[in-house]
Write a structure and sequence with these properties.
The protein is of the alpha/beta class. It folds into 2 domains: about 200 residues, Rossmann fold, CATH 3.40.50.2000; about 140 residues, Rossmann fold. The strands form 3 sheets. Strands 3-2-1-6-7-8-9 form a 7-stranded parallel sheet, with helices on both faces. Helix 9 links the parallel strand 14 and strand 15. Helix 1 packs across helix 11, helix 2 runs parallel beside helix 3 and helix 5 crosses helix 10. The radius of gyration is 20 Å and the shape is globular.
Length: about 375
């Protein structure tokens, strides 16, 4: 028996995995055992920080527009595949027999997986297992209001609580979810899930460029490599380029073949945050986790939000924080080597924000209270 079973499904980026790993570290510190059940494409560099990982039949998004799901071979999933995955998930729950079920994002995202998650949540509810949703501060805005009301109704009918990994002093959940007031009694804020600020910040040199998981980072990486000789401040300093584990293999091979001097290319950096803490400027998309790294390390940053497929979350978060002098924002439609070099040269240390960054520890404490019957 495991204390907590955690369901997490990554489709393009790996931010979900990193957030769960930080929470798992704090759960283990409290003596809470965890099993992660994941349905993303497996990769050796992905560390969930869990006692055990159960891999479901894997899938990913077909493209950056989230047009559909494909399996590990790139073939569209069908009803037979979904039935197999649903049963594998239910079997995992029976095997793990958790004291608490933690679902990442759903029902506020991952709607495409309701074929397996609604049966799982029904089964957990019938067994008396508490069901908690773990969700980030901002959601992708929906043009169809009925989808948002479905989120509200599903949260109310299938969950016992919603842990929002944010601080209402910065972003109230209602900012991007219009029915937040209807589930206000279920919502608890944890603060932001950020790494511990235990970095040794010495002399800063150069620039670090990262593309998250890398599945949609080609344009940013190409622009960054071309921007180095155009920079007035950093053209003669080292640049680290971190493509991410899911960066296309053919694009990676092309970069290796044509890489200029002064740039080091990495698929993945296990000491990424330490490298950031020793860099003058960080260049990235505007995902939740990279922002947390910037705040934890106090590194000047330029962010180019991912905005394909109607994704609004990164653009909205970046625009607001740019207005608070936390980061330098470059619209993806204006991304060129020269515009990026200009932004890098102007980037400044992030302004201090009076927000909670101990979301992992607070989340773990709230889960422990639920398990021990103190909630």
């Amino acid at each position: 028996m495991t204390d907590v079973m955690i369901y997490v499904q990554h489709l393009l980026g790996i931010g979900h995995v990193r957030r769960i790993a930080l929470i798992n570290t704090e759960l283990q510190r409290l003596g809470i055992t965890t099993t992660v059940v994941t349905g993303g494409i497996p990769d050796a560099v992905l560390d969930f920080g869990s006692d055990e990982v159960i891999q479901l039949p894997p899938c990913r998004s077909a493209d950056s527009g989230f047009s559909g799901l494909v399996n590990e071979n790139g073939d569209p999933v069908d009803d037979a595949w979904k039935e197999i995955r649903k049963q594998a998930l239910l079997d995992a729950f029976e095997t793990v027999a958790p004291k608490l079920l933690l679902i990442e994002m759903f029902p506020f995202g991952r709607r495409a997986f309701r074929f397996e998650l609604l049966p799982l949540l029904d089964h957990a509810g019938q067994s008396g297992t508490p069901r908690i949703c773990s969700v980030r501060d901002l959601l992708v805005r929906k043009s169809d209001r009925s989808k948002e009301s479905w989120m509200r109704d599903t949260a109310r009918s299938h969950f016992d609580g919603v842990l929002v990994h944010g601080d209402p002093e910065l972003f109230d959940f209602g900012r991007s979810f219009p029915f937040a007031d209807d589930i206000a009694d279920m919502i608890e804020y944890t603060g932001y899930v950020a790494p511990k600020a235990d970095f040794v910040v010495g002399e800063r040199r150069g620039v670090i460029v990262s593309a998250g998981g890398g599945a949609v980072g080609t344009a940013l990486i190409d622009a960054a490599i071309a921007a180095r000789p155009l920079s007035r401040r950093f053209a003669d300093q080292p640049w680290d380029i971190v493509t991410g584990p899911h960066f296309p293999a053919d694009a990676f091979s092309r970069l290796v073949r044509d890489l200029p001097d002064g740039i080091t290319l990495h698929r993945f950096l296990p000491d990424f945050r330490d490298r950031m803490a020793r860099s003058c400027v960080s260049v990235s998309q505007a995902g939740y986790n990279t922002l947390m790294d910037v705040l934890a390390t106090g590194t000047a940053s330029v962010m180019v939000p991912f905005a394909d497929g109607g994704e609004s979350e990164q653009s909205e978060r970046a625009a607001i924080l740019a207005g608070k002098d936390v980061l330098s924002l470059l619209d993806p439609g204006e991304l060129t080597p020269q515009s990026l070099a200009n932004q890098i040269d102007r980037a400044k240390k992030p302004a201090k924000l009076d927000i909670s960054l101990d979301g992992a520890g607070i989340t773990a404490a709230k889960i422990a209270e639920r398990i021990r019957g103190k909630a």
